Amino acid sequence: MYTRVVPEQCIACGLCQLKAPELFEYDEEGVAYVKIDNNHGTTPIPAALMAKFKDAYTSCPTGAILRSAHPFTSTATDAP
Ligand code: F3S
Questions:
Q1: Any bridge partners for residue 33, and if so which?
Q2: Which residues, at least 6 apart from 4, have a Cβ–Cβ distance to it below 8 Å?
Q3: Residue 56 to residues 11, 12, 15, 28, 74: CA-CA distances in angstroms?
Q4: Confidence of residue 74 (pLDDT cuts 50, 70, 90)
Q5: Domains in the chain, ordered, with CATH?
Q6: Does ligand 1 have an atom closer than 6 angstroms to the CB of 5?
Q7: Is the CB–ligand 1 distance for residue 34 below 6 Å?
């Protein structure tokens, strides 16, 4: 499973970083990104972190966290 955050949809609520600090971090404006691959969505989520990822994914109030069985390509708005 791969993930990335759509920055335009993130309202900087902070829940993802609270739920999965190993996967999510904030930029200087408080907008979240996936820190394992700098939000490219090309590094598989480690199996040991999947439970935390699912918790973060389902907690995001705006649906800004994308997930896909395949690596994401160039743009942040690519849907799985
Ligand atoms: Fe943003 Fe959603 Fe995380 S609003 S801070 S991506 S939980």
A1: 25
A2: 33, 34, 39, 40, 41, 65, 66, 72, 76
A3: 14, 13, 7, 20, 23
A4: low
A5: 2-68 (3.30.70.20)
A6: yes
A7: no
Which phi and psi angles does 14 have, rounded to 5°?
90, -5
Report the first-to-last Cα separation within the chain, whole angstroms.
Answer: 11
Report the atom number in ligand 1 closest to the C-alpha of 26: 5
Q: 49 in ligand 1 pocket by Cβ < 6 Å?
A: no
Instruction: Name the closest-CA residue to atom 3, ligand 1.
Output: 16
- In the chain, DSSP finds a helix count (H) and a strand count (E) of 2, 4
ipTM: 0.98
Contact 4, 40 (CB under 8 A): yes
